[in-house]
## 1
Amino acid sequence: MNREILRLAIPNILTNLTVPLLGMVDMHLMGYQDSAVFMGAVALGGVIFNFVYWGFAFLRMSLSGMAAQAYGRENTHEMAMLLFRGLFLALSAGFLLLMAQTGIEKLSLLVLEGSAEVKALAADYFYVRIWAAPAAIALMVIYGWFLGMQNALYPMIISISINVVNIVSSFILVKYFDMKVEGVALGSVISQYLGLILTIVLFLRKYKYILKEFNFGDILKRSGLLSFLNVSGDIFLRTLCIIIVFTFFTSKSAGTGDLILAANSALLQFLFLFSYFLDGFAYAAEALIGKFTGSKNMAQFKRTVKLLFGWGVVFALLFTALYGFGGTTLLRVFTNQDDVIDVAKEFLPWLIVLPLTGFASYIWDGVYIGATASRLMRNTMLLATLVFFVLFYTMKGQYGNHALWIAMNCFMLGRGVFQTLFYKNLPVFRN
């Protein structure tokens, strides 16, 4: 079982590691400009896309668990319908976002805090990157479906290719064409569409037989769409809570000043690096827990959960040590501005303990998604979000920016604690 976990986790870890690497390169490119406002602008623009893209991450998460259960039942038609329904919703959403882009930008920058200069640059970033929306959301769906099919190799190939293209193109556009925030955004657009082309090629190579199941009437069948949307709706609300927390975090950072925004943006890369690494095991949990739920193999279900938590503890300790001994060195990867580094070092201890407070939440997310326990997942996230805001508003007057980092650590810890308490209420234990 450990071999099975690693077979699925390692490709996802390699895949995910390119994502924070991309964020690090973007921060590096902007952090080595002549002002902190460029780092702040990419951070603020990134928050808008967190809202846009994380808002549709429910499609990937709901699809992976449901597809894995269909795989466990060996139901080819159900596997196909899940993919086609997901793509129908993804492409519809992508084109709606393109039509509504002006309203999204105006509303987002009205709500978010930040200086006028940072907001103007963030708008420039937004209007370029939004054109990647149809491809980006479609790729989320296909990633989830591949994972449900117990295939972690294809998402790895696609994601690494996308992020390498993104890094190279952003570097060239910023360094040689002096495009600054627009160059970073355009690099994302180019890479997403090239990634979608690669995805179609790989799909046809291995899953061409799925196309025989295509039936537009079945895709729009009310019962199928409602079943998909019921699970997706709960996961959407869960994801919305994460979006709200991270958006609030960045907005409050921007409201404190450009220097705090730049420092917090650099420190968030530590969180993202750890989270994308642990998500490799969460994705393995989605695939395996979904398969064992579909085949009703409870012995393997429980064994998988225990082994996944063993891996989670190991990597939490490794990252705590890495951030403890190498945190200051990592900060210099993101920026050469001494004032930003000096501010970030004050808050670095909160990032050192974050792997210990946060690891359980990632493992449990994979378990809950695989078991399609979307309602329980939603409820635990609502409770953790409440913890975040109560703690922040209780402490902000006395502790300032420290209150944001304390609340973030408790948000991550709360997710894991509440999911542990609700574990025995998973639907699989009642069936």
Note: The mean pLDDT is 85.
## 2
Amino acid sequence: MDSVIEVRNLTKRYKDVLALDDVGFDIRKDTIYGFLGRNGAGKTTAMSILTAQNLPSSGQVRVFGEDPYENARVLSRMCFVRESQKYPDDATSRHALASARLFFPRWDQELADDLVEEFQLPLKRTIKKLSRGQLSAVGVIIGLASRAEITFFDEPYLGLDAVARQIFYDRLLTDYAEHPRTVVLSSHLIDEVSNLIERVLVIDGGRIIMDESTEDARALATNVVGDAATVERALHGREVIHRESLGRVASVTFLGRLDAAERDALASAGIDLAPVSLQQLIVRLTQQRTPGRDAFAAAAQEGSLR
């Protein structure tokens, strides 16, 4: 595996808060990752450490094989777009883009100009007077036009309307196809980004509970719909993560996969299989801390879920 980032035993503690708990994972070259999890799960803390804007309490981070902290060789090859980015009070959108152009050696000014027009960004307006969506557009433009070898987007589209978000998704995919690089996308809009991302990293309570290809992640759970009593008998002994019922009909989502014989048996019993969306799976897994969730995390990392 061609990794550009290697994380081992990463821990970050803020006084009595354990933000990252012995985390380990790799980020592959030229891959779009979804870095997903609830608020406070540790996403921003992890990305801040990977981009040398924060220091770990313990553990090791290697980016392009080196420690990123105060390392210009590494930092010039990364871009971190975050919601809380600060600018001088008198800085305009034009100033922000001009500064970024100086920092990123692979900057594409033509792409930046196109994006300014598409997002209808007012270049002469000061940053502090921009709407939340316009401020997000500044970050998105910098993240895309930088063409950095590794780009982190931490909730980059807060305040963007549906049209603007779709512009971002479309331009990201188009530019990624022409200029492959590693993209780590943190998002709460899981269903919107599910068709963009190639791998899924899910963090919950400071621990990685899923590190899978998007295709494999979707197959980690199964949803069945049918007569409630029949469904319950068919699923005896399986780890159920969600259950809904309406009269005598039940819809149950459980962890694990079904082989051909099991699928045929369910069909014969009048039970229908329904797809499980990536968002539904991740929401169910991170809704609460349960033994089932912890068992799933261990099983998924060992590749033992069938």
Note: Residues 219-302 form a domain with the Alpha-Beta Plaits fold (CATH 3.30.70).
## 3
Amino acid sequence: MFGKRKKQVAGCDIGSSAIKLVELKPLKNGEFQLQVAAIAELSPEAIVDGAIMDSSLVVEAVSRLISENGVKNQSFGGSLSGHSVIIKKIQLPAMSADELAESIQWEAEQYIPFDINDVNLDYEILDDGVGRENMEVLLVAVKNDRIADYTSVIVQAGRQPVLIDVDVFAVQNAFEINYGVPTETTALINIGASVTNISVMNEGMSVFWRDVAFGGNQYTEAIQRELSLPREDAERLKLGERVGDHTLQQVLGVVNSVSEDLAAEIDKTVNFFLATSNVDKVERMVLSGGAARTVNLDEVIKGRFQVDVEILNPFRNIRYNESDFDPDWLNRHASAMAVAVGLAVRTVGD
């Protein structure tokens, strides 16, 4: 009861287009105060398909964020997604927690498409199956080499990596501290530059997870092809900004076409979830990630699925001083900060 308060983790989301850094201070009433919120853009060649291709560029960007924002916290948390991450809900014969700890490595081999010695494995009991034959376990496996690449960046930036999470769970954390646990079936859709993370919550529980190799880069590349523009200009246009003589109207057809393709990928995932669960429909969709701000994307998804669609604000219930943080800047970058916020609510050793 009188123990020392656990130390917060600095959330460092190393994405393929930008690094996001968030630090929160816990308040006595269960709320958080924003201490740091910062973004450093990355060149496209630094990280490709989730693999760090030029670690010096990434280390330099993380170090710059630490220095410019006066971050003293030594404990950093990171997050991963994509092909190197496997998340499965499995059924096993009911057993004690000790028995599960002894056998999980062998049990997991049946579900992991990698050599079990090449992954870092974690699990959580969802239903202990007391009085029944089977128990439900959430299994998460991440390739060791991918963990090593990302933790190495943090170490080279002079900080200690104390936890590695998975993007879908970090987004869920950010959602729950700002909106509470949803009562309706809700799809959280985190649209990054190269990967879209989709998770579904039903009856307050996370029940489905999938990563799709589709993201904001598809918009940028389509605009570049259409108008022969440099990448930076295409990035601005997809967010609805005017660039020279080019206007939103010139690219809206291209952007909407890519949004329809993304919506189709989401539709496949949702239909697979509905076909393999006892849930009838998804009632709400919440978008996050840097590409969530793509002009008209929320309307395209709303039109396809006929459900409520909103863009997640991970700072909605987080206190901050307007003298320290420009509200317009936070609003503009909020959706991109969801994973970093979800990491920053974690504590060392939790």
Note: Residues 237 and 247 are 7 Å apart (CA to CA).
